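Researcher: I need the complex structure. Ligand is F0G. Inputs:
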Amino acid sequence: MAKKVFAEPYRIKVVEPIEMTTQEERHQYIKDAGYNTFLINSKQVYIDLLTDSGTSAMSDNQWSGLMIGDEAYAGSENWFALEKAVKEIYGFKYVTPTHQGRGAENLLSTIMITPDTYVPGNMYFTTTRFHQEHNGATFVDIIIDEAHDSAARHPFKGNVDLSKLQNLIDKVGADKIPYVSLAVTVNMAGGQPVSMENMRQVKELCNKHNISVMFDATRCVENAYFIQEREAGYTNKSIKEIVKEMFSYADGCTMSGKKDCLVNIGGFLAMNDEELYRKSCELVVVYEGMPSYGGMAGRDMEAMARGIYEMVDDDYIEHRIKQVRYLGEKLIEAGVPVVEPIGGHAVFLDARRFLSHIPQEQFPAQALAAAVYLDSGVRCMERGIVSAGRKKDTGENYMPKLELVRVTIPRRVYTLSHMDVVAESIINVFRNRDKIKGMKLVYEAPQLRFFTARFEPLEPWKEWEGTI
Ligand code: F0G
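Model: Output:
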């Protein structure tokens, strides 16, 4: 019988007090931050759901690993522990460490991409596409259409549309495609998974044309859970077995250890090809450090090695996914428009439907993230037109179909009571949605503008009573 009530599969040994602020204070803080939640100081935040990146709580086992940090410049013991963990769990032959995911993206894109090529992928991710374009490629979205529809309830919304991939190969030729970039799960689509069958099919098609398949492995454990839950033939397989099979359909991967690996910093590039490994060792010393630390301290590598074994624990990942879903279902019950099905790392509010009176050019998701902060001090993130940025050739704004606010759950950090508070606040904002007005952009950086952009409301917002 399925369990109705579930609880954290850990107990709390250390606590970090958090402070509440008044709505009046938050008015000032959000104004000072140019209505961009990235620019709010952490101390001004009550429940921080900006990201699940680098925000995990480490276990006692990981903390104890910090004490055996071997801080040698070369050949650290902790590097060998990390290398062993990656080879064992992900199954690749070679590993190059990096300080975080985008360090690995930089290495991979610099080595594999030549100008005037095309990198197909299952929806863009901000830093991933930046590195691809920076090296002269054009990103081509080959995700299934359902992924762009927040209400479409496909169980594997991250899947590649094989005909889109085939059409691109027919149009530009396989030699113009350095690799296919496959994210498991797909962050910008709402943390949506890719099915094992789809991974197998992508690999088969690419093998036929001699194209490499590179995974963005950032949240692959979450993907594995969805496969176990939803795909025929995997119910009785362990998360560890599923993860291993997933990577058998990849030639390599980039990884942000700051997510699945339960650490605050770290990443890697992994692969089976010896020459790619050699080139990555040549380049890593330029950008990151020796091939035996790649920008991480010895203690960071030890924590990550231990986190890699913890992340494939079946109870841990079941709880993680269910905690995110718990929040999502509370919002759905109250009629709040969210991306469905609820994904792996976050609940995504659909700002198009939430604030249907604000056109996309007036940044509804940016306004909504600011409004949630104003209401309760809960911090979340815009994932819409601001994050999508501008087209590299024309400079025009991308107009993504998905105009979302990501309410991201850090791993092992918050309890179900925190989720209740967050739901209450978002529901309160939903009831007061007509008081929120559009924004104008007053500053933007030439690339990855969402991190530092500043905004002002087009007209004053009407006051409402916040939940805290
Ligand atoms: N790929 C995906 C799918 C990501 O979500 C991220 C980071 C990266 C690559 C880059 O990794 O941050 O370690 O350099 N995502 C963070 C987020 C920033 O909040 O979603 P990184």
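Model: Summary of the prediction. The chain has two domains: 23-52+314-464, 60-311.
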